[in-house]
TrEMBL record:
Its main location: membrane. Coiled coil: none annotated. It comes from Xaviernesmea oryzae. The keyword Membrane applies. This is Peptide/nickel transport system ATP-binding protein.
Length: 269
């Protein structure tokens, strides 16, 4: 399988401080990869570097090939065609990812319209509206017509996250990056969003880069996992092997903590 995303020796620096060092991994077409580690381990920075959206003041080194194009050192205008075509991203807090001054339907419509024009397909208002409602239905939003007419603050956190997923899917990307997409949600809604992502990735044969600090969540979402600590990879491999027989002390501590938490829940009154 060809790699949609290939990272070799990635480093990220800010003000003389190294935040990510010598990170290398790849994501092939149709593959589901998890990137895990505690807060501050460099997970989200690595994902931002992969799509060329590092904040100002941060500098990337090494190589990042996205859809066969070099991201490191590239001009932003040269990367724009890759975003939405090769890759789309779902961020962890949809309330900040969505435009608070624009209704949900209009935000999804912008993504649909851009992709339709890109692919030379009809972009008249009727066609766009029909596809927007179809996308909202695909992500299991109740009453798509009502949601489309709602402002982001008028719907729940889980519904906002579903709307953000609909926007990402509107682009029909080959690779979906999900950066802590369930962190701000309650446990029941987390499970629904994870099931939804898993189903959509399978149905659309998309590759998935799933970023999380929650091991049980990752275990059910991906096939292979990369473990980051202090900006460095300490372990990687098939998710079953890494979680059942972790070789690095840090991974062992993560697995032990996750098991202790699960045991505590089982014995709680």
């Amino acid at each position: 399988m060809s790699s949609l995303l290939s990272i070799e020796g990635l480093s990220i620096e800010a003000g003389g401080q190294t935040l990510v060092s010598d990170v290398s991994f790849s994501v092939a077409s149709g593959e589901r990869l998890g990137l895990i580690g505690e807060s501050g381990s460099g997970k989200s920075l690595t994902a931002l570097a992969a799509i060329g959206l590092l904040p100002e003041g941060l500098r990337a080194g090494g190589s990042v090939l996205l859809g066969g194009k070099q991201v490191v050192g590239a001009r932003d205008r040269d990367l724009v065609p890759l975003r939405g075509t090769t890759v789309a991203t779902v961020f962890q807090e949809p309330l900040t990812a969505l435009d608070p001054l624009m209704k949900i339907g209009r935000q999804v419509a912008e993504a649909v319209r851009r992709r339709a024009r890109r692919d030379g397909q009809p972009s008249d208002e009727t066609t766009i509206t029909r596809e927007v409602l179809d996308l909202l239905d695909q992500v299991a939003l109740p009453q798509p017509e009502r949601i489309a007419k709602s402002w982001p603050h008028e719907i729940s956190g889980g519904q906002r996250q579903r709307a953000a997923i609909a926007m990402a899917l509107a682009c029909r990307p080959e690779l979906l990056i999900a950066d802590e997409p369930t962190t701000a949600l309650d446990v029941t809604t987390q499970a629904e969003i994870l099931d939804l992502l898993g189903r959509l990735v399978r149905e659309r044969n998309m590759a998935l880069l799933f970023i999380s600090h929650d091991l049980p969540v990752v275990a059910n979402a991906v096939d292979r996992v990369v473990v980051l600590r202090h900006g460095r990879i300490v372990e990687q491999g098939p998710v079953g092997t890494v979680f059942q027989q972790p070789s690095h002390d840090y991974t062992q501590s993560l697995v032990a903590a996750a098991r202790s938490f699960d045991n505590a829940l089982e014995i709680a009154p």
